[in-house]
## 1
Amino acid sequence: MNINVVIVGHVDHGKSTLIGRLLYDSESIKEGKLAEIQKLAEEYKKRFEFAYFLDAFEDELREVRTIDTTGVMFKSKNHYMITDVPGHKEFIKNMLTGASYADVAVLVVSCSQGVEEQTKRHTFLINMLGIKKIIVGVNKMDEVGYKKERFDEVKAQVSKLLDSFDFSNVSYIPISAMQGDNIYKGSEKINWYNGPTLIEALDKIKVERKERLLRFVVQGTYQINSEKVAVGKVESGILKKEDELIFQPSGVRGKVEKIKVFEGEKSIAEEKDSVGIIFKKDLKRGDVGGLLNAPPLSTTEFLGEAVLLSDALQNGDSLQLKCGTAKVDVKIDQIKEKIDSETGKLIEKNPKKINKGDAAIIHFSTQPLVVEKFSEIPELGRFVLVKNERNIGAGVVLDV
Ligand code: GDP
């Protein structure tokens, strides 16, 4: 089974080191690369630093990322894909590229530092993104002499934080990403702990994959020779030649005559495939197609939860919103709740205004637009807020 993992936590608590360790211990690294990195590490008379090693991989990863925004892969019982970290700065970027979708989050907390600001913010974000499974890696156990007392203190801090949210079955694992304790291999130095290692905890995860409705998102249309081609992406479900589709918001209906790809034609396009379809009617960027029995719906209002990363917003403000390939004018109808983005707790009901850094539940009115609940089709359930051509915040659709 393929499982998407996101690794979050405060800066310097050991996320990159952990990713490096997972790749190393799972033997996902190519031989040559490893030797090269070890040589470099020796040259610098450093200890073998996994964080360092991950940077060396950056270029290789970047190439993959431009095609598919998800990052690196490693294998055990399941296949794991590590997706980008939704740090506050990267949050908008992730919202745009779709990297924020993950089945499970690994929250890395340094045992010497304990809970810090980003530990809280990341927890808030993963909760908002609907990621319910979380594993806490209490890292740098080597720095605290592998002491159970300190682990228990940090565990209590983290569980106090997580209690404000709605996570199920959280496991706490004492680890050292640097030394490799309790990642793939158990640890004799942590003999007071008899729970699973990190990989065992991951391998136990089961994710239900429901078959999803077809949503074909149009990026643009072209006239090629005598044919009208609408180029787009199958964001969810399966698209077949001869399918009868309806597109919204334009309300156009018709048959998929051909599915075109660079190499020729296809009879089926699957989730995440980018294809061109030959469709006799006029479509435009922002249109979303689906089957007649489960069509996408065009709406002029919806309820969303957003985090504001710059500027301020108040009731009645006009701005723009990007969702899928659509970019439309929207209005803040009503800010319903202002929420603490560190704890997820309600701060104020019906506030007039929210400021940079605030999270809020907002009722939007919009030009006709297709959105879906984030919990059902996340690809069409996340949006970015734009003001004066700047991305000022991002959010998810709670209800349509
Ligand atoms: P990130 O910012 O969360 O990605 O953190 P890094 O992975 O870059 O790690 C920050 C620093 O902590 C680096 O110097 C790492 O070598 C160090 N570090 C990471 N994990 C451990 C660990 O388990 N034990 C110790 N002693 N140091 C660690």
Note: Residues 118 and 352 are 27 Å apart (CA to CA).
## 2
Amino acid sequence: MTPLLSATQTAARRTLPLALCLAAAGCSGPQSALDPAGREAETVAHLFFVMTIGGAVIWLAVIALAVYAGGFKQRTLSEETGQRLILWGGAVVPTLILAALLAYALWLMPDLRPWTREAMAEGGVKGHVTAEQYWWRVRMEGPGGPVESANELIVPVGQRVDLTLTSPDVIHSFWIPALAGKIDMIPGRTNRITLRADRPGVYRGVCAEFCGESHALMAFTVRAVPPQEHAALAAAEARPAAVTSGEGLRLFLEKGCAACHAIRGTEARGGVGPDLTHVGSRPTIAAATLPNDQASRERFLRNPDAVKPGVRMPGYDMLPPAEIETLARFLGDLK
Ligand code: CUA
């Protein structure tokens, strides 16, 4: 064996376990379709593994045939045998495997959107999600009417969540990989999805259709909590803002923020951007782009376009740093 070849083999032997670990680590996490926490996502993951195995079988068969064929000297195979090999190895076997996979996928399809064919039982929660460039308007039904928030979905574990989905600008796609498959959000059309989180946790949803320059920065958080906790959180969300006076609110109203954003319980009633009534209690800002801390809030207020190119919000870096700090602190206090 040449020294180069043996060195390559040693390197491969050393890095392979690391590569496999990294690949396996990619299978779990809040945004993984391979670590399902809901029934629909389970079916998707199942289909993925079956398809992967089917594809691997075809690939191995083709490689094995290529190696087998490479072992023959020219013209040692009769023309008839060669043609039979091509017919069976190249056409019949792959066609059979692909047909079996297709049949399996079609058979699985009713399970991919299990809820549409099941009796719509009472219970669970209902809501409406609008995808906008580049954030998510969330309006959940509550006992006192719909309650608006943004970029965060809080759902009760083990209960149905019926969502209607639409978009006012371009086509987006709603995807929570750990809970269900994706569904487009199309201007002028209302689509529906029913989810059910079967285990508590924090998951990540994303936009799965290219919608503009900040498409990749358009995500949201899904918090699946026990039903009692969900009821408490929904009640808290429905309450007016925790801070309804002070210097922060004065700046918010005076500097024009209220033209686009609403804070329930105050004079701020803008409907263009995200509702900020309880923005301080959200884990992230800017549609899951930045952590919700003072530094990030200040950074976003100063120059949102540097964080999310193409965002509609104008920058406020003309304000003195003290005012930016006050505004950011006020937003953080809106728990
Ligand atoms: Cu919205 Cu991509």
Note: The CA atoms of residues 31 and 204 lie 5 Å apart.
